[in-house]
Design brief:
19% helix, Lipocalin, 44% strand, 2 domains, 272 residues, 8-stranded antiparallel barrel, Aminopeptidase, alpha+beta
Length: 272
């Protein structure tokens, strides 16, 4: 299980070890010793500690093990490293996803200074070079790096359903979903889609639109355990509970069979 969370001062040694080990193993393949030393000094214990205390640093845990770290200030991504033994597993990509999502809440673009080892990763993510830079270090060595920028898709609705999971709490007697049915929601801008199964439902799909207030209008279609295809439409209104979870109050209608109407409540579950 992956979990990206804010780092605290108790995580300082973990973050420092990941950063310094990555620099010492990876950077000598691309840079002279003077440049490697510059990066090591830039990401020293004192600077990392300041960033942690400012709430700028995150750490990625995979099955309880700290494997990587990320850092940003405003819309500037400043420090992304994955421990060498865990590289090649997509963890750097996952950290970047988390950083960009946080930045997109307040900014329309993300900016970073890309070292030579990281340029390819950022290009694949849609970053474009806006400046080629040189920085002199000791003994006449030159640090060459790229300033890169990417336009971010900002969430345009008050509630983002992407990646959330729901189960029915209440449903009318003429409905077919129950507490054993699990809905997996996805959202991109105003577009909404979901998959669901469990209980009397073999497999089902939903597609619709989310308005600015987070209300959803969608159509649903599923195959039940009786091998019947059922379809309908629904209007769903969200409520945010005291625990921060979303509760959706729904009014729906079948579009085949008896075309009856019903009401239901679905509640958000913990993410996996």
């Amino acid at each position: 299980m992956k979990e990206y969370i804010s780092a605290t001062t108790k995580d300082l040694e973990k973050v420092l070890n990941i950063v310094q080990t990555s620099i010492k193993i990876t950077y000598p393949k691309y840079y002279p010793k003077e440049v490697v030393d510059f990066f090591s000094d830039l990401h020293c214990k004192e600077n990392i500690k300041k960033d942690i205390e400012a709430g700028l640093v995150g750490i990625l845990f995979v099955d309880g093990t700290c494997v990587g770290t990320g850092c940003y200030k405003d819309n500037h991504i400043t420090r992304v490293y994955v421990a060498p033994e865990y590289q090649g597993n997509g963890y750097g990509t996952y950290i970047m996803d988390c950083l960009e999502k946080d930045i997109s809440k307040n900014y329309s673009n993300a900016v970073l200074d890309a070292s030579l080892p990281a340029c390819r990763l950022y290009i694949k993510r849609g970053y474009k070079t806006v400046d080629h830079c040189k920085y002199p270090v000791e003994n006449g060595a030159i640090l060459v790096y790229e300033v890169m920028e990417k336009e971010l898709a900002r969430n345009m609705t008050d509630i983002d359903y992407n990646g959330r999971k729901f189960v029915p709490l209440i449903n009318s007697e003429n409905g077919e979903v129950d507490g054993n049915t699990v809905f997996h929601y996805n959202q991109k801008d105003f577009d909404f889609f979901a998959e669901y199964s469990g209980g009397e439902i073999k497999t089902g799909f939903m597609v619709g639109k989310v308005n600015k207030a987070g209300e959803i209008d969608f159509y649903y279609e599923h195959l039940n355990i009786y091998d019947e295809i059922r379809a309908g439409k629904c209007h769903s209104v969200p409520t945010i509970k005291d625990n921060g979870k979303i509760e959706l109050h729904e009014k729906w209608q079948w579009l085949n069979g008896d075309c009856s109407m019903g009401e239901s409540v679905v509640v958000e579950q913990e993410r996996e």
